[in-house]
């Protein structure tokens, strides 16, 4: 992580704000804003599901993603899949066999980095719901611009002109890479550098999680 | 991350104090803790607590009930199936309740339980792989306080609030019980049943309970006197 020491100020993320129990009726919910990008996530479960989708060894995770327009598309299905697989790595599903956990995500505002905002918000909603988890995770998005520079947490303008965008998810235990979603053209070295930068930036997200939990722990 | 007792914890953190204590004597891992190979990992977010000598758990926020053994719960009968009742307790599947597990029940003398009745029952079996089973008697065959709850009013709340109300340190019930008479049954599954003389009094108890979730002990006391004076008609 040599990059971190050279440019410590480069690891400023967009301001994050979060509220738990945003929805009163769901088992766990959170609203998260990263800069101007906002998402709401509701978690319900473990609950009864129809026997065809039950698994005898672990709980079934179902992720529903709703865009602002409300029209489902193939890209949304792909996003759902990415989020579901990431959640499955974090949730201890083996403690709740033959049940289902439903995660519903609603996009509110997209000014760049929506996928990482959704992933982080999902993690916070899962924490709020009290579902047992193996670890938490943090998602960071970065973009490679025309000149080949790496921009952490790019804005909408950056994304429009970017050569490539990457989203990385790290777990909280060993800070291992859980998910990597990339789009566009880039070299192997750029990928490695982006990975290292996002890895360092993920600590900020984990610190943010701890701050939020500390704030809410006062009232329990 | 390494954590110690009374810290704010997140899933994936590990605690070495517990492992060290475990080398000397037996330790009890409560909710939110899990042993994996040679470390004890946190699985829920909240505050890590310890009770002497060797009990550890995580105080966390939760709304959804996951059945666990020997807890008293409030359930609603949803089905009569032969010699068992199916009871909704708010978990992932309904619990079963045999008609023989009531006081004085025999094959000929069946208890009078209808679909839709509210029950106060104890979890006899609760494991993740099996359907939970309830009983309405203790080990001596006496019903004690368990059984069908007639009349009254049931509402849902978070599991933390239930634990707070039942905690011996909570001044809520002690301040309320002197103000006006009422009956109360608190289920560990986040359901509370109240019965008072009038509807006004019932609603007052319900509001007092729901209102105390985020209040400190002294605030709870002043809220209770407030509600009592409102109810008595001193303040309109």
UniProtKB/TrEMBL annotation, chain A:
Coiled coil: none annotated. It comes from the Eukaryota. One of its GO terms (biological process) is rRNA catabolic process. One of its GO terms (cellular component) is nuclear exosome (RNase complex). It holds the Pfam family RNase_PH_C. The keyword Nucleus applies. Keywords: Exosome, Nucleus, rRNA processing. One of its GO terms (molecular function) is RNA binding. InterPro entries: ExoRNase_PH_dom1, ExoRNase_PH_dom2, ExoRNase_PH_dom2_sf, PNPase/RNase_PH_dom_sf, Ribosomal_Su5_D2-typ_SF, RNase_PH. It is found in: Nucleus. The keyword Kinase does not apply. Residues 12-131, 138-196 form the Exoribonuclease phosphorolytic domain. Belongs to the RNase PH family. This is Exosome complex component RRP46. It comes from Diatraea saccharalis (sugarcane borer).
UniProtKB/TrEMBL annotation, chain B:
GO terms for cellular component: cytoplasmic exosome (RNase complex); nuclear exosome (RNase complex); nucleolus. Residues 27-64 form the Exosome complex exonuclease Rrp40 N-terminal domain. Keywords: Cytoplasm, Exosome, Nucleus, RNA-binding, rRNA processing. GO terms for biological process: CUT catabolic process; exonucleolytic trimming to generate mature 3'-end of 5.8S rRNA from tricistronic rRNA transcript (SSU-rRNA, 5.8S rRNA, LSU-rRNA); nuclear polyadenylation-dependent rRNA catabolic process; poly(A)-dependent snoRNA 3'-end processing; regulation of gene expression; TRAMP-dependent tRNA surveillance pathway; U4 snRNA 3'-end processing. InterPro entries: Exosome_RNA_bind1/RRP40/RRP4, KH_dom_type_1, KH_dom_type_1_sf, NA-bd_OB-fold, RRP40_KH-I, Rrp40_N_euk, Rrp40_S1. GO terms for molecular function: RNA binding. Pfam families: KH_6, Rrp40_N, RRP40_S1. CDD domains: KH-I_Rrp40 (cd22526), S1_Rrp40 (cd05790). PANTHER family: EXOSOME COMPLEX COMPONENT RRP40, PNAS-3 RELATED. This is Exosome complex component RRP40.
